[in-house]
């Protein structure tokens, strides 16, 4: 009888410990991994201008300081595929970047459209040419953005949805390049206004196409405000060597400008 009472007490203690340990285990369970993530797009997503390029990425210049790599390092998704590439246009995304997308992909980021519109050439023209030459080149780019870019974006966005129908897709825009007013070596206010207006138009078209596909749009002007070129605290390179980093976000622009916007929308 005495032995029975001891055994019963031991059983009760064991049960209590089991419940306590089970509760503790549940409270301290590791957080669920972030969904599989695929980062697509052009140089603004690959991280040109941020340095710390992955040697395996070659001319695509994928940076460990680009917002996709920073987000992945912080959130540890179930898988991470980084296919964004310097110089990519919509056709390049379709032809070369979509293979990692699957029905189980949970998150996709992309920035694309600036190269299709010839924004790099427009910037060069404005920096080296007269006001009238700059305005003419910006007008050409703006006509393309209004009339031809929407269909190209639709092609990319539809392909993403087809491959990964359940994924949350975040489309990142482009920042305004210049602070207006004051002194800006080599560029008149006329040129700066024209460039900024074209960037705003590009973002407007991209945001509309993204919304029509049910995608989120990340407006990076909210974070880049006060950090434009000629602001005194720029998160964008001006003319640089190597030249392909010109007019691209710095490492600070990726971490302070792009990452917070993507993180809030992801």
Sequence-ordered SSE layout with sheet pairings:
Elements lengths: L1 H26 L9 E3 L3 H4 L20 H9 L4 E3 L7 H8 L9 E4 L8 H10 L2 H17 L1 H15 L4 E5 L16 H24 L3 E3 L2 H4 L26 H15 L1
Parallel strand pairs: 1-2, 1-3, 3-4, 4-5
Give an overview of the whole structure:
With 266 residues, the chain is α/β, with parallel strands linked by helices. Helices cover 50% and strands 7% of the residues. It has 10 helices and 5 strands; from the N terminus they run αβααβαβαααβαβαα. The chain has a 5-stranded parallel β-sheet with strand order 2-1-3-4-5, with helices on both faces. Helix 3 packs across helix 10 and helix 4 packs parallel to helix 7.
Largest sheet geometry: 5 strands, parallel
Helix content: 40-55%
**What is the 3D shape?**
globular
Q: Encode the helix/strand succession as letters.
A: HEHHEHEHHHEHEHH
Q: In terms of per-residue confidence, which ranges show pLDDT below 50 for 5 or more consecutive residues?
A: 1-27
Helix/strand/pairing class, anyone?
alpha/beta
Helical stretch count?
10
């Amino acid at each position: 009888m005495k032995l029975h009472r001891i055994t019963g007490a031991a059983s009760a203690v064991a049960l209590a410990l089991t419940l306590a340990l089970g509760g503790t285990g549940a409270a301290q369970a590791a957080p669920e991994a972030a969904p599989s993530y695929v980062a697509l797009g052009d140089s603004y997503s690959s991280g040109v201008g941020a340095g710390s390029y992955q040697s395996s990425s070659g001319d695509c210049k994928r940076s460990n300081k680009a917002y996709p790599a920073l987000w992945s390092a912080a959130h540890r998704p179930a898988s991470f595929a980084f296919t964004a590439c310097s110089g990519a246009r919509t056709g390049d995304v379709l032809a070369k970047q979509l293979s990692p997308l699957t029905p189980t992909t949970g998150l996709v980021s992309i920035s694309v459209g600036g190269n299709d519109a010839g924004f790099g050439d427009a910037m060069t023209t404005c920096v080296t040419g007269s006001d009238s030459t700059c305005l003419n080149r910006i007008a050409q780019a703006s006509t393309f953005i209004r009339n031809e870019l929407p269909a190209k974006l639709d092609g990319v966005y539809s392909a993403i949805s087809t491959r990964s129908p359940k994924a949350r897709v975040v489309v990142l825009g482009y920042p305004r390049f210049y602070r207006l007013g004051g002194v800006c070596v080599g560029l008149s206010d006329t040129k700066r206004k024209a460039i900024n207006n074209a960037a705003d138009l590009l973002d407007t078209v991209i945001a509309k196409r993204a919304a029509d596909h049910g995608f989120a749009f990340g407006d990076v002007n909210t974070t880049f405000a006060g950090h434009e070129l000629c602001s005194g605290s720029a998160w964008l390179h001006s003319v640089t060597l190597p030249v392909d980093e010109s007019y691209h976000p710095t490492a600070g622009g990726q971490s302070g400008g792009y990452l917070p916007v993507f993180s809030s929308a992801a």
